[in-house]
Design goal:
The structure is a homodimer. Chain A is mainly alpha-helical. Chain A has two domains: 62 residues, Arc Repressor Mutant, subunit A (Orthogonal Bundle); 141 residues, Four Helix Bundle (Hemerythrin (Met), subunit A) (Up-down Bundle), CATH 1.20.120. Chain A is 69% helix and 5% strand. Chain A has nine helices and three strands. Chain A binds a DNA duplex through helix 3.
DNA sequence: AATTGCAAAAATTTTGAAATTTCCTTGCCT
DNA sequence: AGGCAAGGAAATTTCAAAATTTTTGCAATT
């Protein structure tokens, strides 16, 4: 089974984000090498790049480890995400034009569609992949007109880490849960479209505070 | 001339931050290898880690390049630094105790001492190294009680990038310049010590806005 | 004169193994 | 029994060369 480097990266990132590789677990290039059918050094390269994203911890002479998941870190990631998203949204509301509004509306429409399906269905699991993608797109679109590449990049990294920290956390995905989520996303959209900076700030906080 | 990996990292970081390696310049492992007396792969490793910090750009199959310096990026880095420092200082003012106040006062005292010397002297160049270190310590201490490892780490990275963007920019380092800097640092310290969040936010902005 | 195609050169990535460091087990001494 | 040291196993880092990819230079065509 021959795999190319970008695929190794993608596969490891997915396993990291779905907790198929569990927090704290040691990542040995010499072991993964066999699985991917490449040399240990290639795996090492990929892991170094994953440590840039923050999914993996690296310590010199001590190798790699799946980033640990603690209540402290979850809170830290969440607070940082809130900071970046509030600022990104604020700037987007100041800079964004109709194009931004259109893209945001579109992203929200798709997200809403999936969330409605989930709210009606029994089992959330089969929707999780699609929902994740739609959620990410909505939030990234929200900050997309902030005019700061650094903010957008950093947000992308922290979002990925957020997912890593939250997955594996057993939560009550009852229909209540998704009804709340739907309302929260709606509140963010509404505030953004009328450029109400304070309302949007609050809506973002209310959406994410459950993870603090 | 045999050099260990951490020293290669440190040396490259210094050259990157002092513009001895100029923005946009290509970084070829096969060339640096000769200079450091190690293999190309070792250099590659170091460069991958420097790209995590943001000093170096990496693109698959295209190698490494010193991060470009443009007015846009300078502004972006500066705005992001302002965001992080304002939030870090705000949280520190809420969480920090006397210990924090003491460390901040100490850091400011050292910084002030060097800045006074510079303001009296003709040539700033010989002081630049010491001043850089003292400035970094002051700003890092300011946010040190924020309680967010992620914020502190990210600030560290962005500070380094800030230096990289600003060095090489010809500026008027007349005595006026350092008199302003002294006043600005003092304003930040004063606001922080009396926990005046708004004043501190403004003082940080006023200190950094010249780079926008 | 500009553009496309091809071949040579240069640079990057990958490899497999050697060298080094860390980690763990075992045995010795207090 | 507890702690420390030495030895061996495992893991990480480094190396030099091979394989791959990109870039460059030159000629042929439009």
């Amino acid at each position: 089974m021959r795999v190319e480097t970008p695929e190794i990266f993608a596969d490891l990132q997915r396993k990291l984000m779905t907790a198929e590789l569990q927090p704290g677990e040691k990542l040995k290039p010499s072991e993964l090498q066999g699985f991917y059918g490449c040399s240990a050094n290639t795996v090492r390269d990929v892991l170094l790049r994953l440590s840039k994203v923050g999914l993996v911890e690296f310590e010199m002479q001590r190798g790699f480890r799946v980033r640990a998941s603690t209540p402290e870190r979850r809170g830290d990631v969440t607070r940082f995400r809130i900071l970046l998203e509030q600022e990104g949204a604020r700037l987007s509301m100041l800079n964004g034009g109709v194009g931004w509004e259109a893209r945001l509306t579109a992203a929200h429409h798709k997200l809403r569609h999936i969330e409605s399906q989930i709210a009606r269905s029994e089992d959330v699991v089969p929707f999780m992949g699609l929902w994740s993608d739609a959620e990410l797109e909505f939030h990234e679109t929200l900050i997309s007109s902030c005019g700061s590449p650094i903010l957008r990049e950093t947000y992308g990294d922290i979002y990925v880490q957020f997912r890593q920290q939250m997955v594996g956390l057993e939560r009550d995905f009852g229909s209540n849960y998704f009804h709340s989520i739907i309302a929260e996303h709606q509140a963010i959209l509404d505030a953004a479209l009328v450029r109400d900076i304070e309302a949007c700030r609050t809506a973002i906080y209310d959406h994410l505070k459950r993870n603090l």
